C-alpha cells in the first residue's frame, strides 16, 4: 500500500462522545492479525478511514456487506415494485454500487464478501467464525443502524475485538456540534455554520494492494446478487433510473461537474426543475447517500474550483452551501428525539392534518388531475429521482398547499421510492416544506399550475412523463380541464376519461389550507408547543365543521344562481 498525505490517526481519532461506547484508539489496533471491514454506506475506496485502519498491519482483510431482507426482500403488496422499505430503483442502484466496489477491491487483490440475513446476527457470526482482532465500520447516525451497532459493538468488545467506527459519512461529527451548542442541536442554518467551522481534509491514501481475504470457514459467502437473484422478475418495472450506481460513476460525474463553470455559479433555489434530459443539478445526492462519494472529497473539489474562480456564489445558496445544509439536517436529526414524526417531536408544529387515503393515493399514483404534479410523481416512480424544486412542488401540494395530508405520509412515499432517500434529509425537508419546522411562511405556496410554466411553457416535461397529454396545446397543457371539448377530442385526451379531473380546486383548497395552518399555528403559540392529542382532535373537529359550513353555503349559493 502506498501512503501519502495527512495522518489519519490525527484526523480521524474516534470521538469519546459517540452514542456508542468509545471507539478503540487507532494507535492500539493490533498488528499482524485479521480485520473485518463491515460496509453499509461508505461504499468506496477513496477517503475511507475504516478501510485505512482495517487494512493497516492486517494479515487478512474481510470486506463484508450484508444483504438485509429488511430493505431488499420483495413486497408483493407494495404500490410500486420493490421491498416494503425501498423501491426497485434504489435496490438496483445499491447493487450497482456493490458490483463496482467488488471490482475495485478485486483490482487491489481483495473482494467483497456478500452475506444475507439480519446484519447484526450475520456480523456477530462472522466475528465468531473468522477470529479477527479488529472490526471497522463507518459510524452511522440513523436510529436503525444505531441499534444494530450497539449489538455488534457490545459483542465485539466482550470478545476482546478492537472496534474502530469513524465519522466519515458527514463532514462533521454531529456529536461535536451538539456539544458545542450546549447539548442541543442548532436549529438554524446560520447558527450551525458558525459552530461547524471548516471540515477536516479528506484522506489521500492511494492503495497498490490490500491484505488478502483469509479462510472463510463455514461462512455462507456469495457474489453480488442480481435483481432476479433477489426475487424480482424481469417485467417488474418497464423503465429504470438513468443514473448508475458506484464509486467509479460518482467520481466520473464529480469530475465532469467540476470542469463546468456552472459549479461556481450554482445558486439554489434557482435551477430548472423541468430539465430531465440534462438535469440542472449535479445528481450527486445518490452517491453521497450510499457513500460512493466522500463528502470531504466533494467539499475539497468544490473549494479547488473556487480557487480558480474567485467570483462564485456563497452559502447558503452555493454548492458548498448545499453540503452544509446536509450537515445541518444530519445534526438536527441526530440530536432530536422522534425527528421522523410529528408526535413527541419538540421541534415540530402539531397540526391536525387530514387522514384521507383517497387524496394520498391520487397524489402517489399521479392521478391528481394537475399535470405538473402528476408528471413529477411519474418521474419519481420511473427514475427514483427528480429535481429539488420538483420535490418542493409535490410536497407543498400534498401538505399545506392543497390536500392538507400529513407530511409523514408523503415522507414514506419519498423514503421508499427515491434513490437518494436519506433519513435525516428526507424527514427534515418534509417538515420544512409542510411548514412544520425550520420554515414557517405557510402563505407562500408553490402553484400546481403556474410554477412549472415559468421554466417550461411548452410543457415538454409533462408531455414526456404524461404521454396521454402529448398532443394537448401548450395553452392548456398545465390546466387541460379548461380546454374546450373539441380541443380535448383533437388531442385524443378527454378530461375525466383519459386523464382525471383535478381532485381539488386549487384556489379554494389553498385558501382553506392557509386558514387551517393559521389556526394550528395559533394553537401551538397559545400552548407554547405543548399540544396534546385531545387539543388536536378538538381543533380538527372545529376545522371540519367550519369547512362543512362553508361548503354548504357554497352549494346554497350555486342553487340560487341555478
Automatic annotation (TrEMBL):
- Give the Enzyme Commission number: 4.1.99.13
Protein's UniProt keywords contain Ion transport: no
Site (Electron transfer via tryptophanyl radical) location in chain: 353, 407, 430
Pfam families, A to Z: DNA_photolyase, FAD_binding_7
The family database entries (SUPFAM superfamilies) matched by this protein are listed as: Cryptochrome/photolyase FAD-binding domain, Cryptochrome/photolyase, N-terminal domain
Q: What are the start and end residues of every segment in region (Disordered)?
A: 543-562
Record-listed FAD binding positions = 281-285, 322-329, 420-422
| The protein's enzyme class | lyase
PROSITE patterns, from UniProt? PHR_CRY_ALPHA_BETA
One GO biological-process annotation of the entry reads:
response to light stimulus
Q: Which reaction does it catalyse?
A: (6-4) photoproduct (in DNA) = 2 pyrimidine residues (in DNA)
Q: Does the keyword Nucleus apply?
A: no
Names of required cofactors: FAD
Q: Which InterPro entries match?
A: Crypto/Photolyase_FAD-like_sf, Crypto/Photolyase_N_sf, Cryptochr/Photolyase_FAD-bd, Cryptochrome/DNA_photolyase_1, DNA_photolyase_N, Rossmann-like_a/b/a_fold
Q: Which GO terms describe its molecular function?
A: DNA (6-4) photolyase activity; nucleotide binding
Which keywords appear in this protein's UniProt record, sorted alphabetically? FAD, Flavoprotein, Nucleotide-binding
Which note does the record give on the cofactor?
Answer: Binds 1 FAD per subunit.
Q: What domain of life does the UniProt record list for this protein's source?
A: Eukaryota
Q: Where is the Photolyase/cryptochrome alpha/beta domain?
A: 33-171
Task: State the family it belongs to.
Answer: Belongs to the DNA photolyase class-1 family.
Q: What is this protein called?
A: (6-4)DNA photolyase
Which species expresses this protein natively?
A: Glycine max
Amino acid at each position: 500500500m502506498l501512503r501519502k498525505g495527512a495522518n489519519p490517526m490525527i484526523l480521524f481519532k474516534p470521538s469519546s462522545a459517540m452514542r456508542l461506547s468509545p471507539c478503540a484508539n487507532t494507535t492500539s489496533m493490533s498488528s499482524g492479525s485479521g480485520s473485518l471491514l463491515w460496509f453499509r454506506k461508505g461504499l468506496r475506496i477513496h477517503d475511507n478511514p475504516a478501510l485505512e485502519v482495517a487494512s493497516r498491519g492486517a494479515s487478512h482483510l474481510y470486506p463484508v456487506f450484508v444483504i438485509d431482507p429488511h430493505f431488499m426482500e420483495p413486497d408483493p403488496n407494495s404500490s410500486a415494485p420493490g421491498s416494503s422499505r425501498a423501491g426497485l430503483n434504489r435496490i438496483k442502484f445499491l447493487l450497482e454500487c456493490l458490483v463496482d466496489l467488488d471490482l475495485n477491491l478485486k483490482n487491489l487483490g481483495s473482494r467483497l464478501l456478500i452475506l444475507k440475513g439480519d446484519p447484526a446476527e450475520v456480523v456477530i457470526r462472522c466475528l465468531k467464525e473468522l477470529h479477527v482482532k479488529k472490526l471497522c465500520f463507518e459510524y452511522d447516525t440513523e436510529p436503525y443502524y444505531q441499534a444494530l451497532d450497539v449489538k455488534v459493538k457490545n459483542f465485539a468488545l466482550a470478545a476482546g475485538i478492537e472496534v474502530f467506527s469513524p465519522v466519515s459519512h458527514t463532514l462533521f461529527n454531529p456529536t461535536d456540534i451538539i456539544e458545542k451548542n450546549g447539548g442541543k442541536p442548532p436549529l438554524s442554518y446560520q447558527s450551525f455554520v458558525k459552530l461547524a467551522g471548516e471540515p477536516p481534509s479528506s484522506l489521500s491514501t492511494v492503495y497498490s494492494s490490500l491484505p488478502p481475504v483469509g479462510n472463510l470457514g463455514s461462512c455462507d459467502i456469495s457474489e453480488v446478487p442480481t435483481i432476479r437473484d433477489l426475487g424480482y422478475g424481469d417485467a417488474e418495472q418497464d423503465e429504470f433510473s438513468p443514473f448508475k450506481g458506484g464509486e467509479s460513476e460518482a467520481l466520473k460525474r464529480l469530475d465532469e461537474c467540476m470542469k463546468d463553470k456552472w459549479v461556481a455559479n450554482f445558486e439554489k433555489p434557482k435551477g430548472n426543475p423541468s430539465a430531465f434530459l440534462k438535469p440542472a443539478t449535479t445528481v450527486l445526492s445518490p452517491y453521497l447517500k450510499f457513500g460512493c462519494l466522500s463528502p470531504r472529497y466533494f467539499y475539497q473539489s468544490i473549494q479547488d474550483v473556487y480557487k480558480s474562480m474567485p467570483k462564485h456564489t456563497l452559502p447558503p445558496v452555493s454548492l458548498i452551501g448545499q453540503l452544509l445544509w446536509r450537515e445541518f439536517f444530519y445534526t438536527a436529526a441526530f440530536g432530536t428525539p422522534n425527528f421522523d414524526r410529528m408526535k413527541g417531536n419538540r421541534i415540530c408544529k402539531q397540526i391536525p392534518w387530514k387522514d384521507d387515503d383517497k387524496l394520498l393515493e391520487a397524489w402517489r399514483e399521479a392521478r391528481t388531475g394537475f399535470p405538473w404534479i402528476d408528471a413529477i410523481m411519474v418521474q419519481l416512480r420511473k427514475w427514483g429521482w427528480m429535481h429539488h424544486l420538483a420535490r418542493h412542488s409535490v410536497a407543498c401540494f400534498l401538505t399545506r398547499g392543497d390536500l392538507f395530508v400529513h407530511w409523514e405520509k408523503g415522507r414514506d412515499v419519498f423514503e421508499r421510492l427515491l434513490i437518494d432517500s436519506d433519513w435525516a434529509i428526507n424527514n427534515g425537508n418534509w417538515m420544512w416544506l409542510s411548514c412544520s419546522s425550520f420554515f414557517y411562511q405557510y402563505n407562500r405556496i408553490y402553484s400546481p399550475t403556474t410554477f412549472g410554466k415559468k421554466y417550461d411553457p411548452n410543457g415538454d416535461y409533462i408531455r414526456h412523463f404524461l404521454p396521454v397529454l402529448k398532443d394537448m396545446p401548450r395553452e392548456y397543457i398545465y390546466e387541460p380541464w379548461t380546454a374546450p371539448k373539441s380541443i380535448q377530442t383533437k388531442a385524443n385526451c378527454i378530461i375525466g376519461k383519459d386523464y382525471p379531473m383535478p381532485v381539488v380546486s386549487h384556489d379554494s383548497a389553498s385558501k382553506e389550507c392557509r386558514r387551517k395552518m393559521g389556526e394550528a399555528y395559533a394553537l401551538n403559540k397559545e400552548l407554547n408547543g405543548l399540544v396534546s392529542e385531545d387539543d388536536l382532535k378538538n381543533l380538527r373537529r372545529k376545522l371540519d365543521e367550519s369547512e362543512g359550513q362553508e361548503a354548504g353555503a357554497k352549494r346554497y349559493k350555486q342553487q340560487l344562481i341555478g
